[in-house]
Amino acid sequence: MGPTGDAGAPATGGKKAPAKAAARETAKKTAEMPVEKSVEKSVEKSVPAKRTAAKKTAARKTADGSPKPPAAKAKKTAAAKTKQSAPAKQSAPAKQSAPAKQSAATKQSAPAKQSAATKQSAPAKQSAATKQSAPAKKTSGGARAESHAAMVRRARKINRELAEVYPYAHPELDFENPFQLLVATVLSAQTTDLRVNQTTPALFAKYPTPEDLAAAVPEELEETIRPTGFFRAKARSLLGLSAALRDNFGGEVPGSLDDLVTLPGVGRKTAFVVLGNAFGVPGITVDTHFGRLVRRWKWTDQEDPVKVEAAVAEIFPKSDWTMLSHRVIFHGRRICHARKPACGACPIAPLCPAYGEGETDPEKAKKLLKYEKGGMPGQRLKPPPDYPGTPAPPLAGR
Ligand code: SF4
């Protein structure tokens, strides 16, 4: 480029040079003038523009708030000239704030929806449960998010509440010694304690000791225990366990789990009933009621009785095991029935995750209550003195 330009200069030099120089100067002056004027004009324009922007953006002051140098003013003027872009910028944070408000509203409405959805669960506890579920929702969800420690606290509270509801809880089989309790427990399989209690007076009158029972005529024994159902199988068990007591344990019921489960027809459940109620050895009795209720209460989701027993044993101290078993079974028989629990009349409803599985109408629920809670006779013909209900009647025709 240099050589080309240099070559051009001499070509345009000579006489014409002064005139061109003057023309250049004139051109420079005229070129500078509009620039200054345009700056002035733009500055003039920028002032009202800035004012307008300031008015409009009263809430969004500039980050530094300091006066801008002229150049910046000019830039601002350019920005102010495009007034449409300013609102666009304003609308951007406005749009951001709107969703923020919406999200806040949504956060409020979410628990509301939850509470509506969980209205079927325990009303009293619901407020607490709902309050807990709102933050729990952020993590992952409601009652399922209950920690093990919280479940243990709730389980122990249920036990305390049940202790107040059933201070008279007891084994519902009539018995006067370990042998009678062992026999009655074997007979209670697949039938009610009431039916066993109505059957055993005649049985124990005929066969008061293991030796007597071991020597029974099978057909006679079967006939005696027929009201309890499955009488042939049960007769075989009674004959076998009586003979084992006579032959292996000196006619006495052993007081250990290991020995008891060696007896024909005696499993862990029967053994724990005998140990807990005839020997004072703490034990958890997992029968159909116990298993159903502890699963409803989310103490465990195990179905296998041995696993249920192990899970519950971890929640409660040993000293609670026997009475806990009685209370839970009492509750299952009186209020928390298998098919239609009386939730509307349940004193532990606020602690129960399964509230609503049964009848919630208080009046209708009240009609579902059984035994002393429903104003009916109990299961025992000879209940303990503190039992508030009436004794069961003897078996009709016997
Ligand atoms: S009756 Fe209803 S509220 Fe009460 S323990 Fe049973 S399922 Fe829960």
Strand and helix layout:
Layout: H1 2-11, H2 16-56, H3 70-81, H4 85-117, H5 123-139, H6 148-165, H7 178-187, H8 193-206, H9 210-214, H10 218-225, H11 231-248, H12 257-260, H13 268-278, H14 288-296, H15 305-315, H16 321-334, H17 362-366
Bound molecules: iron/sulfur cluster.
CATH architecture of the domain at 178-374: Orthogonal Bundle
Give the CA-based shape. globular
How widely separated are the two ends?
132 Å
Residue fraction in strands: under 5%
Q: Report the structural category.
A: mainly alpha
- The total of helices stands at 17
What string, H for helix and E for strand, traces the elements in order? HHHHHHHHHHHHHHHHH
Tell me about the largest β-sheet: none
- According to CATH, the homologous superfamily of the domain at 178-374 is Hypothetical protein, domain 2
Q: Identify low-pLDDT runs.
A: 1-23, 25-141
Number of E-type strands: 0
Helix content range? 55-70%
- CATH fold naming of the domain at 178-374: Endonuclease III, domain 1
What is the alpha-carbon Rg in Å?
Answer: 45 Å
Bound small molecules, deduplicated: iron/sulfur cluster
Average pLDDT rating: 75
CATH class of the domain at 178-374: Mainly Alpha
